[in-house]
Amino acid sequence: MDKIEEFIQLSHGDGGIKTGELIEKTILGHLKNKILEKLEDSAILELNGTKIAFTTDSFVVDPVFFPGGDIGKLSVCGTINDLATTGCRPVALSLSFIMEEGFPLTDFKKILASIKETADESGVNIVTGDTKVVGKGNADSIFINTSGIGLVDYKKEFSPRLIKPGDKIIINGPIADHGAAIMSCRKGFNFKSGIKSDCAPLSAMVMDMIKVSDSIHCLRDATRGGLATILLELAKSSGTRINIFEDNIPLRKEVRGLCEFLGLDPLYMANEGKMVAFVGQKDASRVIEAISANKYGKGSSIIGEVAGKDDEGPVILNTAIGTTRILDRYYSEQLPRIC
């Protein structure tokens, strides 16, 4: 029998099982090295005794403008937040556009203004970039690629391998806002929900955390695949068992209602302004207090704990009705083109 040829599918890019397979079996199979194989949000490089964090990302969100933001704001926030997971001080970004012929110049100017405003808030400059235009029908409006660098002047390392039993798991506010906002304004839905994306740059908030604790072991921003996918990745990487508590996970009433109506699970919906922190038990309340004082940390909560070592890396949800549920990776994202 002839071998069936495989093709790239939408599910290869949504952060679910197929994305993991593509990265681990195909990309790492060709490009694996000691830095890349860590699969961190940002790489830590040492150049002449100076440590820098380096990351890159691409943004293809549909629609380009959404409640609470646009593709420009999203591109800066996404890159800043990937850098922030290292505890670095972001210093510069690159910015590249791929635009389709016919994209409105007025919309492009709005996106540039949004980029400028968000970069200024984060204290970074756009220092290099590129622009390409393709023919009508050869792209979808506009795609943006960014890269970012930051100075790692904090001696503490953050890594999944540092996660240990007893760590408390903290998130800085309600989950699933971004996914729900995108869903509510997609063609065919157009819900008048009032839900806005949580899209936000979190580097300053992370610095607030670092100032009050030297027991922060790991940081990760919960984007594609949502909170559940991030926790599953970290449980597997650290070889630990994680317990989370449904009653402690912040979720807006409007988002809950939309998810129930559409049959979606908010644990697997994208966020663009949520940082998950694994913190030593003695410092958890101090960290909560610090991030709650930041405008992007309102509604922060301790949502769970690392229960012990476990090679299987299970994540167990303790539900509001007293039962338990073992979380698993989604085969594919509930909503494609989310970021």
What does this protein structure show overall?
The protein is an alpha+beta fold. The protein has 2 domains: 40-151, PurM-like, N-terminal domain (60s Ribosomal Protein L30, Chain: A, 2-Layer Sandwich); 160-326, PurM-like C-terminal domain (Phosphoribosyl-aminoimidazole Synthetase, Chain A, domain 2, Alpha-Beta Complex), CATH 3.90.650.10. It has 8 helices and 14 strands. It has helices at 17-31, 71-84, 105-122, 177-185, 203-212, 226-238, 253-262, 284-292; strands at residues 43-47, 50-59, 65-66, 69-70, 89-100, 125-134, 142-151, 168-171, 216-221, 240-245, 275-279, 301-309, 315-318, 324-326. Strands 9-11-8-12-10-13-14 form a 7-stranded mixed β-sheet. Strands 1-2-7-5-6 form a 5-stranded mixed β-sheet, covered by helices on one side. Helix 2 runs parallel beside helix 3 (105-122) and helix 5 (203-212) packs antiparallel against helix 8 (284-292). It is globular. The model has no long low-confidence stretch (mean pLDDT 93).
